[in-house]
Each structure stands twice: as C-alpha cells, then as structure tokens.
Design brief:
Largest sheet: 10 strands, antiparallel
Radius of gyration: 18 Å
C-alpha cells in the first residue's frame, strides 16, 4: 500500500490529470486558454497575459543576470525535499516510490544577502503582480504591506523535474505556506542552455471554466513568470539536456491563511520566517 504523503509545495491530486503525467506535450494554439496581446505595465513589458498568469519580458537585464551568476556561484544547492506522511521514507525512497520531484535547491535571504535582487523582485510584485491580482494591501505611497519568503534557487539537470502537479498555496489550507499570495519564477538560463524542462500549467477552459487546458510556458533568460500562488496548478517537466536554473520568490500575507490567524502560527512573531525549513 502506498502511504499518503504531504508535499512541502502544496499538491492536490486530481485523477483527471493522469493522462498529462504520462505524455506531457505542448498544446496547439487552438487548445490553449486565451492569452492577451503584449502590453506595458509600469515600465515592464508583459509578453503573455492570462487570467491566471503573466510573463514579464526581460525583467532582468544581461548585466543583472551576470551579477546574479556571480552571487549564486557561492550557493551549494541540495536535493529538494518533500513533506512525507506515513512511512517515514528517506528522500531517495520517496523519489523511487513517487517520482514526483527531483531537483536541487538552495534557500537564501535576498533582502539581507543581495539587496538589489530583493528590490527588483519586490518591484515586479508591486508593479505587475499586485496590479494584475490586487491581493496585497499597500500604504499611501504604494509600498506593499506584506512579507517576503526566502528566495529559492532551483537547479534542474538532465532527467530532473518537478512533475507533480501542485499549487504553491491553498485558500482553505492550514499550513504556514498557505500565506503565499503571489509567486514569481525568474528564469536564469537561456532557452538554448537546455531542452525539456517546460513550465506547464493547467488553465481554466474559457468555455467550461474548469481546469482542463494544458499550457506550456517557455521562458528565456531574464524573463519572469508571475501568478497568484493560490490559483495556478502547475509543474516543471523533465529536463532532457543541459541545465535549467530559476529563482522562485513569494510575497505572503499572514492574514490570508488560517494557520497564521487561528492556527498554530497565530502566536508566531511577525518577523519570524514563514517556513522554518526554508532557512539556508
């Protein structure tokens, strides 16, 4: 009997998605959910806009990417872990049993270690994410009244993936990470640096309004994907060749999560990290 397990990145199983696990593919334009034409928002160029995500073109300049490369070269990513229940499997046993996630990650406090990076990610959240989806409060100057989780540096080599369909948080959840409101995925690798490894999302069909449309999103170095953490069902396909590198950044609001309002986290100091395990 396969024991139940809980993933650190939230997963809600859906039997209707079984076929997508077996044969991921890039959908044709006719099968994709509606994507709006490119536009400019507060100085950022949005190349793709959908009700559930948007892609910001070249949010990081070549010089920024070079500086990031120097900074991240000091990081030593380790195998990504998941929350397990039941059998107490080791991480290797989990991978063999479920084949849900296999990648390398490193967590760091961008605000303390790389202030310009934190400022840039916060700017995208403020000027794009919270404009498209106004989930966070702001003061009279427009500054967001929220907190930011530690930044995740993710590395996928050949045959690595995060193929379990998941959301980053749930509106009705009762875990620390359910305070996540907006997610940023910043692509660090050029398209030519790897094959496979597509970011795939299950979008609401424009007619039926149910999550049935598979959308594959290909980002180039410097591009940023922004989406509501509690809405987008997504995964990362298996990398075939090369190396895929990204940064993942979350803005969170404790008031949006039962854990922090009436649950075990209600007494936690506001300055404490949202995920204790997300420490470097």
């Amino acid at each position: 009997v396969v024991p139940r397990r809980r993933l650190r990145t939230k997963v809600r199983l859906d039997p209707s998605l079984a076929a997508a696990f077996a044969a991921p593919s890039v959908p044709s334009a006719s099968s994709s959910a509606k994507v709006s034409a490119p536009c400019t928002w507060n100085g950022f160029v949005c190349m793709e806009r959908n009700a559930e995500y948007c892609v910001v073109k070249e949010a990081f300049t070549p010089q920024m990417l070079e500086n990031l490369g120097h900074f991240l070269s000091r990081k030593r990513p380790k195998p990504a872990k998941m929350k397990n229940e039941g059998a107490g499997d080791s991480d290797d046993e989990r991978k063999a049993r479920y084949d849900d996630r296999d990648s390398m990650v490193s967590w760091f406090d961008a605000e303390a270690e790389c202030r310009w990076l934190h400022n840039r990610l916060e700017e995208v959240i403020q000027k794009v994410g919270n404009v498209e989806w106004p989930l966070l409060k702001a003061d009279g100057t427009g500054k967001l009244e929220c907190e930011f989780e530690q930044t995740q540096y993710s590395v996928y080599g050949p045959n690595q993936h995060f193929q379990a369909w998941h959301q980053d948080a749930f509106a009705d959840g009762n875990d620390p990470e359910d305070a996540r409101q907006l997610t940023i995925v910043a692509m660090l690798s050029k398209k030519s640096a790897y094959t496979g490894g597509l970011f795939q999302a299950k979008l609401k069909d424009p007619v039926t309004k149910k999550k049935k449309v598979l959308q594959s999103i290909r980002l180039d170095a410097g591009d940023v994907l922004v989406f509501p953490a509690k809405e987008l069902l997504h995964r990362v396909g298996r990398v075939k060749t090369g190396t895929r590198k990204t940064l993942v950044f979350w803005a969170f609001d404790r008031a949006s999560c039962k854990y922090h309002t009436v649950g075990a986290g209600a007494e936690v100091d506001a300055g404490a990290g949202i995920l204790g395990a997300a420490k470097p």
